[in-house]
Amino acid sequence: MNKDSTKLSVIFDNINHDSCCTSLWGFSAYIQTPKHTILFDTGSNGRSLIKNLETKGLDIRKIDTIFISHFHWDHIGGIDSILEVNPNVKIFVNHTTSPNFIRDMSAMSQGVEVIGKAFQKIYDDIYSTGELNHSKEHSLVLDTDGGVVVVAGCSHAGISDIAQRVKAFFNKEILLIVGGYHLNDKSQKEILETIERLKSLGTKYVAPSHCTGERAFELFKKEFGERYIDSGAGLDIDLATL
Questions:
Q1: What is the architecture, at CATH level 2, of domain 3-241?
Q2: Are residues 1 and 34 in contact, defined by beta-carbon separation less than 8 angstroms?
Q3: By C-alpha distance, which of 158, 157, 208 is closest to 179?
Q4: What's the pLDDT tens digit per position in 2-52?
Q5: Per-domain boundaries in the chain
Q6: Which of 205-238 are b and which e, b meaning 16 or more Cβ less than 10 Å from the residue's Cβ?
Q7: Please, which residues have CB within 8 angstroms of residue 85's CB and are 6 or more apart in sequence?
């Protein structure tokens, strides 16, 4: 995948990056690749998700894929609102997702594909990590010319374990990890150990938000320096600039 034409926008987050966007608990990102437009998760509130998309000038009707990281309210809350505007999407979910949700979403979209525990290719240069550590969650991976990009919802499996699986699969530099790192209840020692492990795996840029936690934000910013990206609702990342 040519990273020069791949862009990612955080459009729903409890952390605010741009005051033009509404911030509520949850996470969602709008990803534009050369061949696909992917909505990663849908936040907790459809009205705010739609408003943020419109404010950012991002076209809901261009979305062809919705990738749901895990079946928690703050990641699936806006999906009905999106499907009301654009039902012409394929949905990818983890295998632990409610069968009732899968049935309903199948009726409202172009179909639902269930991802198991194994690393799985979903499109050219676009992958699911599969479920890891019984977390009931999977993450999205973009394989670009500049390295792999990991988009995580909440990292319930452990962000460093997710990075380790990605590194082992591709054996390439991890260009960026964006999303929730789920470190809000971890000690300083545990957070620093996570940071060192991510560094040892060759992680170049980090853009933590959502459930990462204030202590972790401070430590990641200190340890990654210029390679730390302040994230939150309204952030735009052009991979060509990394």
A1: 4-Layer Sandwich (3.60)
A2: yes
A3: 208
A4: 877 899 999 999 999 999 999 999 999 999 999 999 999 999 999 999 999
A5: 3-241
A6: bbbbbbbbbeebbebbeebbeebbbebbbbbebe
A7: 50, 60, 61
Break the chain down into helix, strand, coil percent, rounded to 5: 35, 25, 40
Half-sphere exposure of 96 (CA within 13 A, CB side): 14
Position with higher pLDDT, 125 vs 1: 125
Token pair 């990605």 in the structure block, residue: 166
Structural tokens at position 108: 């409202």
Buried b (16+ CB within 10 A) or exposed e, 116-138: eeebeebbebbbbbbbbeebbbb
- Which candidate, 113, 111, 139, places its Cα nearest to that of 41? 139
From 136, 164, 161, select the one nearest 148 (Cα to Cα): 164
Could you tell me the CA-to-CA distances from 203 to 163, 167, 172, 175 in Å, in that order?
8, 9, 10, 6
User: Residue 179: what are its φ and ψ, rounded to 5°?
Assistant: 125, -160
Identify the CA nearest to 37 among candidates 15, 8, 57, 79: 8
Distances (CA, A) of 150 to 22, 57, 97, 164: 24, 24, 21, 11
Mean pLDDT value of segment 157-177: 97
